[in-house]
Amino acid sequence: MEHVPAAAHATVRGRVPLPVLRADGGVTRARVISFDGLADGREHLALALGDRASDRPCAAGVPLVRLHSECLTGDVFGSQRCDCGPQLREAVGRIADTGGYLLYLRQEGRGIGLYNKLDAYLLQDGGLDTYEANLALGFGTDEREYAVAAQMLRTLGVDELDLLTNNPDKATQLRAAGIRVRHRVPTGVHRSPANARYLAAKAGRGAHTLGDDPFDPRDVIRGGRRGSRGSQDG
Ligand SMILES: [Zn+2]
Fold first, then answer.
1. Which residue ranges does the record assign to the GTP cyclohydrolase II domain (predicted)?
2. Which pTM value belongs to this model?
């Protein structure tokens, strides 16, 4: 009997037209895609944008893709403790302009869940940074994983992409799952007084690169390694 990995069995369940708001106040035509058979059984979504939102699948060009992990407080309520909301809206606009997919992954709070994330916020108010707080609660510093994202991409027929992210780990995990990441495209940095400490922790502890600390574009094109000018102290 032929061996097929379980992760290969997902199928598209529905492609539903969904007009969505852009950061500039305009509306863009999208399709929200649901799946059957995703490896972890969660209700992850793909938002097809730009030319990928058309009725017929479009084969032209390498899609721009963003992996966005759910952040209820940031995405929905506009929490100033993180930059998830502005990151999400920036990604929708940029992918709509270029053509591609936003994968909305239901792994809240770096994968520890909503209530645990709220517990971590209290620890952070006591002086811990976002990584230390997760460790204090008995979790890893980042429990997110992207194998299911690779499964979604394969189901959509995407085996090569440009990845919109400042997080080199996302590119590494996608490559490990067999997806070709052609370019890593940096996002903007959405700083506010309330999230400055969070962003500094991401840069210092999570090897994120911040957009106002410019990338060496040659390095990004070579495959997502963190450039010397992209490093951040802290
Ligand atoms: Zn957030």
1. 30-186
2. 0.80
Distance 2 CA to ligand 1 centre (A): 42
C-alpha distance across the termini of the chain, in Å: 53
Query: What is the CA angle 187-192-196, rounded to 5?
Result: 85
Closest CA to 121 of 110, 112, 131, 133: 133
Residue 234 assigned to a binding site: no
CATH architecture of 6-107+146-193: 3-Layer(aba) Sandwich (3.40)
Look at 20-34, 76-90, 152-166, 214-228 and tell me which has the smallest mean pLDDT.
214-228
**CA of 200 relative to ligand 1 center, distance in Å:** 14
Q: Is 170 annotated as a binding residue?
A: yes
Of the listed 75, 83, 142, 162, which one is catalytic?
A: 142
Choose among 90, 88, 55: nearest CA to 71: 88
User: Is 175 tagged catalytic?
Assistant: no
Distance between Cα 215 and ligand 1 center (Å): 23
Closest CA to 32 of 12, 52, 47: 47
Q: Is 181 helix (H, G, I), strand (E, B) or coil?
A: strand
Instruction: Show me where the domains of the chain are located.
Output: 6-107+146-193
